[in-house]
Every structure is written in C-alpha cells, then in structure tokens.
Amino acid sequence: MSYNNIISEEHNGITTITINRPKKLNALNLETIKELHDAFDDANQDRNTKVIIVTGSGEKAFVAGADISEFANFDVNEGKQLAAKGQELLFNFIENLSKPVIAAVNGFALGGGLELAMSCHFRVASDNAKLGLPEVSLGVIPGYGGTQRLPQLVGKGRAMELIMTAGMIDANQALNYGLVNHVTTQEELIPLCEKIAFKISRNSSVAISAAIRAINANFKDGVNGFQTEIKEFGNCFGTEDFEEGTTAFLEKRKADFPGR
Ligand code: COA
Predict the structure, then answer these.
(1) What is the pLDDT of residue 221?
(2) If you measure from the C-alpha of residue 244 to the centroid of ligand 1, how many angstroms do you get, rounded to a whole number?
(3) Is the CB of 64 under 6 A from ligand 1?
(4) Would you place residue 146 in the very low, low, confident or very high pLDDT band (cuts 50, 70, 90)?
(5) pLDDT of residue 8
(6) Which of 160, 193, 207, 250 lies 20 to 30 Å from 8, alpha-carbon distance?
(7) Catalytic residue among 95, 135, 194, 232
(8) What is the pLDDT of residues 56-82, one digit of tens each?
(9) Which residue, by CA, sits nearest to atom 43 of ligand 1?
C-alpha cells in the first residue's frame, strides 16, 4: 500500500513504520492517523511480521504532537470527536494489537507524539529525545489517552507535574521515570530496537499475543486481570506453539514455532 505521510517496510520479520512529515516535525494530522491505522492493521495481519517498530523521520522529531493547525477552530463537539476517533483508530488500536510494537523515540515526542509512544508496548529513546505533554500550554488537555497512560507508566505525582507544567523531560529523565526502557545514541536507536525485536521474534508469537492481552487486562476497568491470565494461560495449552516449545525443551533443541 502507498501512503502520503508514512513509510512502512518489512525486513527480516520486522515492520518499521516511519512517520514522514519531517518539515512539520511529523505532527499527526488526521490523514496520518488514518494511514497509521492502516499500516498497523496490515502489519498485524502480515504473516511475515513478528514485531513492529514505529519511529519518526529526520533527526529532530519522533512526533511533535497532534497537528495544531487542524483543530485550532474546533468547537466542543468537534473536540470530543477528535479525541474519540483518534483513540479508537490509533492509540487504543496499537495498545491492543496482537503483535509487539516498539516505539523508537528519535527526538521530540510531545503531546500526541508521546501519547503515540505510550500506546506502544514499550519505548526506546535516543539521547536527543525530549518528551512531554504540553497541551495545557495551548488551553487543552491530552486527548489521545495521555492522562491515563502517563500515570500508569510513571505514577500519578510525576504525571500531574509533567502535565501541569507542560514541561519536557530529556531521555535520561524518561529512563529514570520508567517511561522508556533504554537510552542510546541516535545511530544506535534502530539497531538496538531491531536487536530487541529479533530476540522477541524467536519466541512463540501466539504466547506473546496472549501475554499482551493478559498484561493489558490489568489496566482495563471492570476486568479481572488474574482471571484473564488464567484463561489465556489455559488457552496456550491448546496451541501448536506450546507443543513445539515443550517438546523442543525436552529434546534439548531450539524450538521452531509454527505461530499457531
Ligand atoms: N502541529 C502542527 N505543526 C507543528 C507542530 C504541531 N504539533 N509542531 C511543529 N510544527 C511545525 C511548525 O509549525 C513548523 O512549521 P513551519 O515551518 O511551517 O512554520 C515546523 O513544524 C517546525 O517547527 P518549529 O517550531 O519551527 O521548530 P523548533 O525547533 O523551533 O521547535 C518544538 C520545536 C517541538 C519545540 C515546537 O515545534 C513546538 O512547540 N511544537 C508544538 C508542540 C506541542 O505543543 N505539541 C502538542 C500539540 S497538542
């Protein structure tokens, strides 16, 4: 599929999706959000893809936020629609994807950009990254899940401070907060993400999907995560991957998972 605002490429089981509006610091307009939805959907269904990496093009930004020029004149209902549609189409969609998604944060990750990174299953940053939710400086609040996912990741007090001050933290502070898992140089960012992705891709994709559902259940209202874990754990026993994984262990060889 061809896109106007993103590039999606599969190589050795890894699909890398690059947001490609560097002149606008990769700001998320509606068309980009729709294209990202399609690219994530395609990669999720692609049998070759084991792991997805999302990053921004250029050396300056991952994503500098939702495209402010698109919503500056919106009214109350349009504002609600913008948040609801975006959450459904992209942010909740990524979080609930069955394949692992790594955010390679290569520069500014602000507003919708940090919200995008937080929707991914985990984050790796380059040392020039700057992260924040500056929406209150525009008279609005984060609307793509930022008020929910930031406290989940860094704790309520830190989230309150970061959102209230509209400030930015650097990559090392983000590492200290647990907002990103690793910090590396700009050159090493994608190679490190690929190294982690290869490690993931050697494991059972069926079990990884089950683990994503079970972990996410911990953060869903009205859902008992322990019950979800019991159900997902049990279901693993009916998969070919489980049969292969346990047989390979007992035969002292490396498992070759069929992904079923
Ligand atoms: N929406 C729309 N356009 C954006 C944007 C956004 N969120 N962030 C950056 N851009 C555009 C700028 O308008 C500028 O476009 P122009 O060249 O046509 O004028 C271009 O990207 C480059 O940005 P610029 O501000 O010149 O770069 P900078 O290095 O001086 O500053 C930032 C970088 C990230 C500090 C600054 O762009 C910024 O504050 N962006 C908005 C961040 C924000 O509030 N995000 C939350 C939105 S809800």
Answers:
(1) 87
(2) 50
(3) yes
(4) very high
(5) 98
(6) 207
(7) 135
(8) 999 999 999 999 999 999 999 999 999
(9) 65
Domain regions of the chain by residue span? 6-201, 205-250
Output the CA 58–ligand 1 centroid distance in Å. 14
Q: Give mean pLDDT, residues 27-38.
A: 97
Q: pTM of the predicted model, to two decimals? A: 0.97
- The tokens for 57 are 């093009």
Confirm whether 115 is a catalytic residue.
yes
pLDDT tens by residue, 184-211: 999 999 999 999 999 999 999 999 999 9
Q: Is 161 a catalytic residue?
A: no
Label each residue of 27-76 as H, E or C: CECHHHHHHHHHHHHHHHHCCCCCEEEEEECCCCEEECCECHHHHCCCCH
Query: Above 80 in pLDDT, residue 1?
Result: no
Show the CA angle centred on residue 126, arms to residues 107 and 3, nearest 5°: 55
Contact (CB, 8 A) for 173 and 154: no
Ligand 1: centre distance to CA 121 (Å): 26
What architecture is domain 6-201? Alpha-Beta Complex (3.90)
Q: Which atom of ligand 1 is nearest to the CA of 130?
A: 34
Q: Are 181 and 125 in contact (CB under 8 A)?
A: no
At 50, the pLDDT band (50, 70, 90 cuts) reads very high
CA 81 to CA 76: how far, in whole Å? Answer: 9
The ligand 1 atom nearest the CA atom of 133: 46
Assess contact for 44 and 99: CB atoms under 8 A: yes
Given the residues 35, 115, 194, 232, the one annotated as active site: 115
* Distance from C-alpha of 171 to C-alpha of 111, rounded to nearest angstrom: 16
Kindly state the DSSP code that residue 114 receives in the 8-state scheme.
H
Measuring from atom 8 of ligand 1, which residue has the nearest CA?
64
Tokens linked to 249 = 């262990």
